[in-house]
Amino acid sequence: MNERNSLNKVSKDAVNVKKDINGLVEGGVFQLSKMEDNRSQVANKSNEELPTWMEGSASQLSKGLLVI
């Protein structure tokens, strides 16, 4: 392989590496966005259910104290 062919191959390989890196970065950004959405959904659900859980726990605790 002569020098010109080698340079062309290196140039093409560099373009492919750049495309692959861009794809990985975009995939990473998408995954982070999806994780943030999931975290937000879990936090919202927790905020909605926490008062009910606390009331139920307090009720169970007070029933247990009345039995003693």
Describe this structure in words.
With 68 residues, the protein is mainly α. It has a domain at 36-68. Helix content is 96%, strand content 0%. The longest helix is centred in the middle third of the chain and has 65 residues, at 3-67. The radius of gyration is 29 Å and the shape is rod-shaped. The N and C termini lie far apart (90 Å).
Which characteristics define this entry?
mainly alpha; 68 residues; 1 helix
Summarize the topology.
Layout: H1 3-67
Give the total of beta strands. Answer: 0
End-to-end Cα distance: 90 Å
Shape: rod-shaped
Q: How confident is the prediction overall: mean pLDDT? A: 88
Structural class: mainly alpha
Count of helical stretches:
1
Output the radius of gyration: 29 Å
Major β-sheet, in short?
A: none
| Oligomer class | single chain
Instruction: Give the helices and strands as they follow along the chain.
Output: H
Question: Approximately what portion of the residues adopt beta-strand conformation?
Answer: under 5%
Uncertain stretches of 5 or more adjacent residues: none
Helix content: over 70%
Give me a quick take on this structure.
The chain has one helix at residues 3-67.
